[in-house]
Amino acid sequence: MDTAARLLRLLSLLQSRPQWDGAELATRLDVTPRTVRRDVTRLRSLGYPVDAEAGIGGGYRLGPGGRLPPLLLEDEEAVAIAVGLRVATTTTVSGVEEAAISALAKLHQVLPARLRAQVAAIGAHTTQLPQGELPTVDGEVLVTLAAGCRDIEGIRFRYRTHDGAESERSVEPLQIVHTGRRWYLVARDRDRQAWRTFRVDRIAHPVLTGARYRFDDPPDPVKLVAEGTGVAPWDIVARIRVHADAATVSRAIPPHQGVVEPIDATTCEVRFAANELGPLVAQVTRIYWPFEILDPPELRTAVHAHARGLLDS
Questions:
Q1: Does pTM top 0.70 for this prediction?
Q2: Is the separation of the CB atoms in 236 and 284 below 8 Å?
Q3: What's the number of CA atoms in the CB half-sphere (13 Å) around residue 65?
Q4: 93: which strand partners?
Q5: In the chain, alpha helices (H)
Q6: What 3-state class would DSSP assign to 244?
Q7: Judging by beta carbons within 10 Å of its beta carbon (0-12, 13-18, 19+), is residue 210 exposed, middle or buried?
Q8: Phi, psi of 104 (to 5 degrees)
Q9: CA distance linking residue 311 with residue 46, whole number of Å
Q10: Does residue 259 surpass a pLDDT of 90?
Q11: CB neighbours (10 Å) of residue 158?
């Protein structure tokens, strides 16, 4: 192999497992250990972090950071990445659209013709349902929040509520939840000593504090967001006892539509919320399993009137 081909082969080997002995690499590349050392030096000069340890148990490994090495992808993996990048071009995270378009253009340059045809066919026959005007999320803010969740590190930020009031918050982040329309940070508010959900598009200037923490009994982030966005803000909350297990009902009623909580192995409670009875009647009548309306009484009356109207039609 010439030098360029050998360097690509060496990168491929270093990606394939955590560590390689120098003699093994020399055998795989059909060169001497001295040539392997020279090739490793060349990779380092190109920005690839190749770590080396001498002695028994030592060897070469591809370290974190530096330039991204060439990725050797299977056909299905390449198509999946290309389709994912197409979806990312319509995201609400600022900066991601341009980066996704750039990455997609680079990927198309190296895709074989047969795979380009597959990706083009998927793109030509796929349409995303319009989401309306959605708030844009700052990409850097999202990265900082994710780092806090990953490293279990406190964060301070400015937060703007729905009425425009701003305040300084100090939180212990747990998880970022994406509902399909908006991004939320689930965190423990240190000043209020309570779990809260924060809309990421209303967070500004987040800073990692360096303070570490530990959660003894954290809540379910998805349920907390569902409660905070689907139930708490509304005037009327409906409680329905459904005669089916919670896991089955949850597959039909996703978190952004209602909160499902188990009662026992065969029943669960579903909570819907709205500002008027009409939307609640529509939601309740879509329940497939036998159910009982627990609260409010006026919803039970409205559902009965709706059922009589259907029978008379």
A1: no
A2: no
A3: 4
A4: 137
A5: 3-16, 22-29, 33-45, 75-88, 96-110, 113-124, 139-151, 221-230, 246-252, 277-284, 297-312
A6: coil
A7: exposed
A8: -65, -40
A9: 76
A10: no
A11: 14
**Tens digits of residue pLDDT in 281-297:** 998 888 999 999 998 99
pLDDT of residue 128: 67
List pLDDT tens digits, range 116-143: 888 888 777 777 666 666 777 888 888 8
Mean pLDDT of 212-216: 88
**What angle do helix axes 33-45 and 3-16 make, rounded to 10 degrees?**
90
**Quick one: pLDDT at residue 81?**
84
Q: Annotate 9-18 with b (16+ C-beta within 10 A) or e (fewer).
A: bbbebbeeee
Residue 293: HSE in the Cβ half-sphere, 13 Å Cα cutoff: 19
Residues 313, 302: Cα–Cα separation, whole Å: 17
Does the N-terminal peptide bond of residue 33 adopt cis geometry, omega within 30 degrees of 0? no
